[in-house]
Amino acid sequence: xxxxxxxxxxxxxxxxxxxxxxxxxxxxxxxxxxxxxxxxxxxxxxxxxxxxxxxxxxxxxxxxxxxxxxxxxxxxxxxxxxxxxxxxxxxxxxxxxxxxxxxxxxxxxxxxxxxxxxxxxxxxxxxxxxxxxxxxxxxxxxxxxxxxxxxxxxxxxxxxxxxxxxxxxxxxxxxxxxxxxxxxxxxxxxxxxxxxxxxxxxxxxxxxxxxxxxxxxxxxxxxxxxxxxxxxxxxxxxxxxxxxxxxxxxxxxxxxxxxxxxxxxxxxxxxxxxxxxxxxxxxxxxxxxxxxxxxxxxxxxxxxxxxxxxxxxxxxxxxxxxxxxxxxxxxxxxxxxxxxxxxxxxxxxxxxxxxxxxxxxxxxxxxxxxxxxxxxxxxxxxxxxxxxxxxxxxxxxxxxxxxxxxxxxxxxxxxxxxxxxxxxxxxxxxxxxxxxxxxxxxxxxxxxxxxxxxxxxxxxxxxxxxxxxxxxxxxxxxxxxxxxxxxxxxxxxxxxx
Length: 497
Prior knowledge:
Layout: E1 5-11, H1 15-26, E2 31-35, H2 48-69, H3 80-108, E3 113-124, E4 127-132, E5 137-147, E6 151-153, E7 166-167, H4 169-172, E8 181-185, H5 189-201, E9 205-209, H6 221-233, E10 237-239, E11 242-250, E12 253-260, E13 263-269, E14 271-274, E15 278-280, H7 287-290, E16 313-315, H8 326-341, E17 354-357, E18 363-367, H9 370-375, E19 380-386, H10 391-396, E20 402-408, E21 415-421, H11 430-438, H12 443-447, H13 457-466, E22 481-487, E23 490-493
Parallel strand pairs: 1-2, 1-5, 2-3, 5-16, 7-14, 8-9, 8-14, 9-10
Antiparallel strand pairs: 3-4, 4-5, 6-15, 11-12, 12-13, 17-18, 18-21, 19-20, 19-22, 20-21, 22-23
């Protein structure tokens, strides 16, 4: 057997690349996984795991303080050293799992799985040149290639990012203490998540620069309002409609100048965090040599259902420029391998993607939202249920939030989307996601017996409202319940007893 001949070579050991390699193992194919730095990628380091570990910790601090301060006790605090220790433990645990798994798999199934460290570059559609970490260069032959090289934080041109004073997400974990003040550039999901984290810790004055008139501009107004109000309640200053004119390091601090509707303002803070998206790691991997086409933006690899214009070369995860989420990268990777070796012909659907924004409160979503329906003139029926009428929310003494479900504007009422805002929101959308994938209506959900008390009971109550058999009537609890049609951008209350 030729040690350098494989059925498939995967470039990149992040969430997408790792998933591709493991799915190829399932098919009993010879697979080579190449990673030049750290297995796990941004899914483990400086990304999802890190930020969510911080969010969980900060959320607990906030919840404890909201309880004890209300009865006159002093706020509870933890040091940044303890925060870093928690982060390091979480990262080590996940890294250890990956390392052990790879080492054992490479030993027990060395006939089909190989892991190599170094920089891989395509020299033609069936060969990879690998510059190993020890300086040795080898040529690898393969039938298929999966590009899963991930992404890195986007940096503004002409800005000095030292990852100490002006940082991206890569620099957060390297801080030695809470910053006394922090400006976050970008009011998308990641920017708002970090604003939530640092404001919840209660040790940092946070400023958030928002180019639009509202944060999270892709979401419905009722969602952005509840998140924005909570950020401001916890001391965050949001610069709406703000254009960043300059940002520079002055005397070891950050000085930035913004223009808000013609009014200039100069503010000095201790540190800055750039949160303005990510760019794919596709430099020097052989795209030009193979003639692999870019996507419409020119910044990502173009693909058709994960397949590039070179039939045996696939692109998955962040480098393909679709949806930069760990779960989507993994799904795309599995799909690509199944197309290669499983004769899969069904196209990958992006209609029922479950996401969660770690904010205050948390926001979970699947499918389309109300804003999308208005912009695309899609006639729908919408039901909205406030957390304050859910037994579990009442028991938790946390009734801030709501469920919103969108269905087709017909008797079949197929589910098109859902938004859940509030405690345990992420646990409420899976059933809806399954029904969207199956193209089903709401009848199945209305008869499903949910555990009591639980937040997911609110899903059942929503569909019962649409079917006009809810225990609460929207015509009575108008401030808690809403049930309406949306046609040509016009809301019309559905007649309910």
